[in-house]
Design brief:
2 domains, binds zinc ion
């Protein structure tokens, strides 16, 4: 899918608003992009930057082929700078450096763009330094600030920026966008329940490990739903080899939860018996409980085996 179509579907209002601003020559000097991770802030920042520099705008969108577009995509354009936290903060020196960079005349054009990632991490000194810059911009500078926690941005900075609110994707829309990216329906539904970041979801869907992990958990889920005790042996036989790292083990729980939540929705819409609904809801609770134990450093294997017993033979389970 073309880049701008994705942006338009992800944030239709913002896309329209920015296109309008371009049309009327009303691009602000500073924008504050505010919203959760995965809502498209960076994609919009890059699109906007390319709109500014592209030498071959096609139907109101950057061409993605001219040398400016290509260098912006590669993070190599001399007049586009990205500032990211060094460790926990963005330091005053980083902003000073940025300013000195911009007091030189533009290397190729007069226009410059800078993107500040996690702008809420600016130290007070950095924020004040930036503020002066925003008050007296030198040359044609466009500042794009990104944040996931707007509450932590100084009000004086907020008042200097045009604030754009990035809405999280709802599940249905996400499934549609993933399908347009060539992801199968079943996987798309699963991914939508794992993350609300489209980029992340697309990335995961292309990951070979993920696809193996998904199949394994799906099989485990099938055993569990049928109360089949093979689910117990399966932990050691198949799962341990694939879920080695903490990060992978966490995803294992997330996947199982996603399957059980899907199951719960299914039996609720099919109006099955109350016992069945209650049992499935209880199983979701058991998974969450297993997750907490694993977080408290109980091994993944024993947490998973214990989970099987608690689901299939609650009376046999030891240690509650
Ligand atoms: Zn271009």
């Amino acid at each position: 899918m073309k880049e701008y179509q994705q942006l338009e579907q992800q944030q239709p209002l913002l896309y329209k608003q920015l296109q309008n601003s371009f049309k009327h020559g009303r691009i602000a000097h500073a924008y504050l992009f505010e919203g959760d991770a995965g809502t498209g802030k960076r994609a919009f920042a890059l699109w906007l930057t390319k709109k500014i520099f592209c030498t071959n705008i096609i139907e109101d969108n950057p061409c993605n082929q001219c040398s400016n577009c290509l260098r912006i995509n590669a993070g190599e354009h001399p007049d586009v700078l990205l500032v990211a936290p060094e460790g926990q903060t963005i330091k005053v020196d980083q902003i000073r450096q940025l300013k000195s960079e911009y007091s030189k005349s533009g290397i190729e054009t007069k226009q410059k763009v800078f993107i500040i990632e996690q702008a809420e991490k600016m130290s007070i000194g950095a924020a004040n330094s930036l503020l002066k810059f925003l008050e007296e911009p030198e040359g044609q500078v466009t500042a794009l600030l990104e944040t996931e926690s707007i509450g932590k941005i100084l009000p004086t900075i907020q008042s200097r920026c045009q604030i754009l609110h990035f809405q999280p994707l709802d599940g249905k829309k996400m499934v549609g966008l993933l399908k347009a990216e060539g992801v199968g329906e079943k996987t798309a539904v699963l991914l939508a329940s794992l993350t609300n970041s489209l980029e992340k979801a697309v990335e995961i869907s292309r990951d070979e490990w993920f696809n193996e992990a998904r199949e394994i958990i799906e099989q485990w889920f099938d055993y569990l739903v049928k109360d089949d005790l093979q689910a117990f042996i399966y932990v050691q036989k198949r799962m341990l080899k694939v879920f080695k790292e903490k990060e992978q083990q966490k995803l294992g729980f997330d996947l199982l939860l996603a399957y059980y939540r899907g199951q719960l929705t299914k039996i609720l819409t099919e109006k099955r018996s109350k016992t069945e609904i209650r049992q499935t809801a209880q199983r979701v609770e058991l998974i969450l409980d297993a997750y907490r134990k694993w977080e408290a450093n109980v091994s993944w294997q024993s947490v998973c085996e214990q989970l099987v017993i608690r689901m299939i033979h609650p009376k046999l389970s030891i240690g509650g």
